[in-house]
Fold:
Amino acid sequence: MSHRSLLAILGSVVAALFLASLLVGPAGLDLATSIGGLFNGDNEAARLVMQEIRLPRAILGLMIGATLGLSGAVLQGYLRNPLADPGVLGISSSASFGAVIAIYTGLSAAFSLALPLMAMAGAVGAVVLIQLLSGAYAGTLTLILSGVAITSLAGAMTSLALNLSPNPFAALEILFWMLGSLADRSMLHVWMSAPFMVAGWVMLLALGRALDALTLGRDVASSMGIRLARTQWLAVLGTAASVGAATAVAGAISFVGLIVPHMLRPLVGAQPSRLLTASALGGAALILASDIATRIIAPGRDLKLGVLTAIVGAPFFLWLVIKNRRNVL
Amino acid sequence: MRHLILRMIGCLAACIGLTASALSAPAGGAPQRVVSMNLCTDQLAMLVAGEGQLHSVSYLAIDPEGSVLAEEARRFPINHGRAEEIFMMHPDLVLSGTFTGRATVALLKRLGFHVEEFPPSYSFPEIREQVRRMGRLLGRESRAEELVQELDTRLTQFPDSDRKNWRPLAALHYANSYTSGSGTLASAVVERSGLENLGTKLGLVGTIRLPLEVLVASAPDLIIGGVRPSKAPALAYQTFEHPALRAVLEGGELTSIPDKYWVCGAPFTAQAVGLLSAQAQALRAKRGTGK
Structure:
C-alpha cells in the first residue's frame, strides 16, 4: 500500500469517527435534528447540544488523540525505544500534576492560561527528569523504570494535593486526573488548549528528517547535517506543549502513544518520518472510538476514557515487553 | 500491677452498668438530658425540646451553611458523634440519623443507651410525622402540633401546585451534574412550588447523575442549583459555567436555594417552597404577558 493511500484511509476513518462522535450522546437526538442543530437550525436546544457540547468534545477527542499518537511516534523514534510513550514515561501524569496545582490553588481562576502553562511545565519537568535519569542512550529497562518512578511520584503528588484540598469533591477528582475524560468539555477548553497543541505538532512534525537520520546513529546523523541540540529541543518542547495542553483539559490518557505507532509501523516501512502523520491520524481515530465507546457502554455513568485505553493498551504493552524480552533483559 | 488492671476493669464494668441502668429508666417522664448526633435531629430537637431538655447537638448544627438554627445551636455543647464523647455526656436519650454513625449507634445501644433513629424525610407528610414523633419522644406533643400547624400555615400562603395551571419546567443541577428525581425531598419541594421537576419527568428516581446534554436538550424554564459547598475550587462545579448551560439561562443566573432549607426536612423547608414559588409565579407572569 502506498503511503498516500494509507493516509487517505486513515483520514477517512478519522472523519467517519468524528461524525459518529457528534451523533452519539445521552440526549438521543435523531439524525435530522442533530445535523440541523449543527448548522444553526431553528431548534435552540438541539443547536446548544450540538454546537456547545458535542462539537467541542469531538474536536478535543481528535486533537488529543493526534497529540498522543504523534508524540508517541516521535518519542519512540527519538529515544530509539519501542516502549516510549508519554503515558508510560510519566509525561502525562506530570502534566496532570501541574494542572492540578493550577486549578486547586485557584491560580487558573485568576489567570486562565495558567492551566495549560502549568501542565506544560509539569511535562517539561518529566522529560528533563527522564533524560537526567536515563541519559540519551538509555537501554529500554532504564527508560521504563525511570518512567515508572516518575509516574508514581507525580501520581502521589497529585493525590496529596487533592487530599489536602478542603473541598469535599476534590479528592474524587483524583480519578479524572489519572484516567482522563472528555465529558462536558466546552469550546472554552478548545480555545485554551488548541494553540498549544498545534504549536507542539509543528515542532514535532519538523523532526521527520532528523528522526530518519538518527536511525543510522548520532554520529552519522550529525555528519548528515542534523543539528542534534536543535532536534532535542524540538522533541522536548513539542512533546511538552502538545501533551501538556492535552492533559490540562482531559487528564492523563495512557497507552495511545504506545499502541498506535506500533500498529502502523509495518504499514509505513522502517522510515520514522512517514510514521509521524500516520500516527497522528491513528491516535485521533483511537481516542474518538474510545470516547464513543464510553458513551455507548455506560451512558450517564461518566466512564473514564483512560479506563478503555488502558484495557486495550496494557495487554498490548505486556505483549511488547514479552516480544522485546531479549533486548530488555 | 495485675491487681490494678483487674480493679480498673472491674470499675469500668461497674461504671457502665451503673450509667446504663440509671439512664435506661428515666424517672417515669420525659428525657431530661438529650444528645443529638445528626444535623436533622439536631434541628428538630432544638425546635421541639423544652428549656433544659436538650443537652448537646452535633458540630454540623453550628455551621450556618447547613443549619438554619446555627445561632441557636451555639448555646449547646457540641459533639462529633463519637461513642466515647456521647458516653461521657450521660444522655438519657440519644438521637441519630439512620445513615450516619452506624458503628457508633450500635455501640451506644450495646452500652444500654436509649437511641432513637430518624430516617431522612423525603416528603411533607414525612416531615409532619417526624415532628410529631420528636414531640412524643420528648413529651412535648403540643409543641410538635404547633410546629406542624406552623408548617401548614406557611405552605398555604403559596398557591398549591394547581394541575390546570402551566407548571414551568425546573431542572435541579448540583455539583458533578447530579439531579434529584422522584422520591426526594427536593422534588417534593419543587413540585409543591408549582413547578415541574425535570428529574421526575425523565423518570429518574433518587439523586442521580443527569448528563448536561440531556438537561440542555430538555430546555428547562429555570435551573435550580449552583450552590458551592466550599470556597476551594474543584472541577465538580465546572458545568455551572458551561456555555451551553449559560445559553439555556438566557443571561439569567442559576436559581440557588440555600442548602440549609432542604438538606433536612423541617418546618423551615417552607422557606425553600417560598423562594421557588416566587420564581414560578414570575415565570407564569412573564409567559402571560409575553404572548
About this structure: The first strand of chain B starts at residue 34 and ends at 36.
